[in-house]
Amino acid sequence: MDDLELKYLKSLAHQYPTIAAASTEIINLQAILNLPKGTEHFLTDIHGEYEQFNHVLKNGSGSVKRKIDEEFGNTLSSRDKKSLATLIYYPKEKLDIVLRTEDNIEDWYKITLHRLVQITKRVSSKYTRSKVRKALPKDFAYIIEELITEKAEIQDKEAYYNEIIHTIIRIDRAQEFIVALSQLIQRMVIDHLHIVGDIYDRGPGPHIILDTLGRYHSVDIQWGNHDIVWMGAAAGHLACIANVVRMSARYGNLDTLEEGYGINLIPLATFALEHYSNVNCDAFSIKYNTDYNTKDLSLDMKMHKAIAIIQFKLEGNLIMRRPEFHMEDRLLLDKVDYAGRTINIGGSSYTMRDVEFPTVDPENPYALTPEEEQVMERLRQAFLKCEKLQEHVRFLFSHGGLYKVHNSNLLYHGCVPMNEKGNFSTFVVDKERYSGKALYDVLDQYARKGYYSRNNPAEMQKGQDLIWYIWAGPNSPVFGKDKMATFERYFVVEKETHKETKNSYYQLLDQEEILNKILTEFGLDVAKSHIVNGHVPVELKKGESPIKCGGKLLIIDGGFSKAYQGKTGIAGYTLVANSHGMRLVAHEPFESAEAAILHESDIFSDSVILETSNTRISVADTDIGAELKESIHQLERLLQAYRDGLITERMC
Predict the structure, then answer these.
(1) Is the alpha carbon torsion for 277, 282, 283, 289 positive or negative?
(2) 149 near 133, Cβ under 8 Å?
(3) Collapsed DSSP state (helix, strand, coil) of residue 363
(4) What's the predicted TM-score (pTM) here?
(5) Which of 94, 174, 290, 642 shows the greatest Cβ crowding within 10 Å of its Cβ?
(6) Residue 80 has pLDDT above 70, yes or no
(7) What burial class does residue 53 get, using C-beta atoms within 10 Å of its C-beta: 0-12 exposed, 13-18 middle, 19+ buried?
(8) Above 60 in pLDDT, residue 558?
(9) E-assigned strand segments in 172-304
(10) Among 77, 156, 168, 42, which Cα is nearest to 117's?
């Protein structure tokens, strides 16, 4: 035993000062290794659709229903199972209805509490008592533990448990207890949650989703391009702020900024009314939903155009500041022929549907006017000083990254950039070329510098510019296209200019050697690993499949956002991986939480079993299992050191 190992073991001995203490921990950890692995839940491309997100989170993509079926089989009717499931998803709301409609509430309490206790027993059975105890709500921890723990010493167990439930009802605590059990079931049915990118934009409630994730017991996030641009905006990067405000205007979600985050948009509104009041804004229509107040339509279109022009100016300056980005093809404001109403793109002339740019100086098109500078500075201060947004973005940094390797799964939002031959594309950062995993790592590192390097302004600026590149750059892993044709879609008539060509990665997904190359690059065993991918909606109505290369790669973006559902034909895919294998779940559109409560109408979900394991997958087979095995090894070395007299036990 060398000096370094002995030093480590002496440190470990402070935590386990005796042979008995070390032995007990070894026995405990060894037992945990043999438990079934916890259920993992994968969601992606939520895009602000908080009601559907909350419902899928509550039902665990059908996991709660499966537990009810397993526990009760044919002893409960389909109607009773639906009612029990709805109660577990929305206990407070469902109780309000029951209290108004149930004739014999005491009997209903007895039946319901017994059923909830049975489900709680089932969902907690795969965990250690210690883990369950930590999850228990404080007010009812002791009572729940009594109800779900078998007591061999009690002869009349039924009478014992019945008396506990009877007392809960008699002292008028049944409602609170039902809520506590329902929330505990929701928590225990899913051990860990993966969000594979794009929480923000399009839908109305990304802030609500992030509040929910902040309270969730175990979660990681792989940043999507729509997340990263909000992270750049929170850091104070002007081009990112302009993009965020423009997209919020485009999808009728300025309320997310104003009410969700308290960002003051009055300076932009005042500027738009002054400079765009008599300007053609037809190209800047609003893609609004049923909650949108159309009285704001005219003003929002003006604000939409005003911030878009500012965005193109800011991005132009950024591209000229960063020639290493090689994005000169995105410099378009200086290519406009105002007299001929045309634009030169790539050497060809195209028709402009709108050249009414009141704040653009044709001689210096990328210069912001003093008024535009003032608007952007006030927006920058609003984003920087928004406590809620800063809290959410810090959460994204602390719980997220550009990719994650977890339990033989590689998770990322977009793609691993490559050329048509399947070789990893390179991108230069600080005069060094990066590709594959190294590209992810360096961009992740600089994104953090862009937010946190307050004491190094140059590094912070570079980091923020790279955040914008991650959002829209051709070699960005989370964007995955040759260009973002925002300018062309607004202004150019010819639709061929609107095309955004996907990275070659997307044409190579069914080639096993390509996927094996990616898995090897990230240090994974190609024989048993998967890639879980978001970002590009799977168009089921066109016959596309989310399952690529025999299940080695899974694209689980199927249209969670209502903006995509007409294109995809469904309302999103989710993935569930438990101790029995992997299951891909396709969801139908979600009506509303209100309908789910009143009519007990769950999301209809069709699931496909991707893999089943001949033997139940245990904790020993997971990443946590590998850590526990290493801990056991070190504790066994500590035991040997005690027995060899190299370290002395500390008796109390």
Answers:
(1) positive
(2) no
(3) coil
(4) 0.92
(5) 94
(6) yes
(7) buried
(8) no
(9) 192-195, 219-222
(10) 168
